[in-house]
Amino acid sequence: MNRVLINIKGVVQGVGFRPFVYNLAKSLNLKGTVTNTADGVAIDIEGKDITSFIGRLPKEAPPLSEINKIDISPMPFYGHKDFEIVKSRDSGSFTLISSDVSICDDCLKEMLDKGNRRYLYPFINCINCGPRYTITNAVPYDRHNTTMSVFKMCNECESEYNNTSDRRFHAQPNACAVCGPQVEFQISNFKFQTGEATDPIKATIDILKQGGIVAIKGLGGFHIA
Fold first, then answer.
1. Domains identified in the chain and CATH numbers
2. pTM: predicted TM-score of the whole model, two decimal places
3. Cα–Cα dist 220/111, whole Å
4. pLDDT at residue 93 above 70?
């Protein structure tokens, strides 16, 4: 097989699947493209080590992914010059999106590091954690189809997003305190008092200690505390 089209269905969007495919293909010196579709992920790939690529694909897939079906179709050799992640296609009918994932160890370490630019940033995320399903407005799963579309990445975040060796490579919710969502506190019942109005987290703790009810709005919905 010199060239095949591979269509993968399952939980393969929002889990770092395209970056995984990209790096696997590059490691085997294969050429072609990978893209999200409304059905899942589509791979157009050619080269000598396709058999190895196909064998490793399900075995080494990202831990958050779940492959339900793989369709492989032999194709005439095309002559791709490189391997790249290309613009998503809206073709297809339905695909599964990963659920939101709690903070990973790497992000937690960064968030607690006073020297890190994301120190105490509550919306920290990467390809291995963060919001997925609750921020999705449409498929394919791309930033412009999520509630993060209104937040333009700063230069540093965009550099991470485009860096193939970074764990935020193609992480759609990627953001920081400079360019991403911010935390704010609003009070509607003034029988509760807080001296921490400038610190939304501490103010929330104050209100809860007084027996108040707090609606915590995240990127994708509300949590009542």
1. 3-92 (3.30.70.100), 99-162 (no CATH), 183-225 (no CATH)
2. 0.82
3. 21
4. no
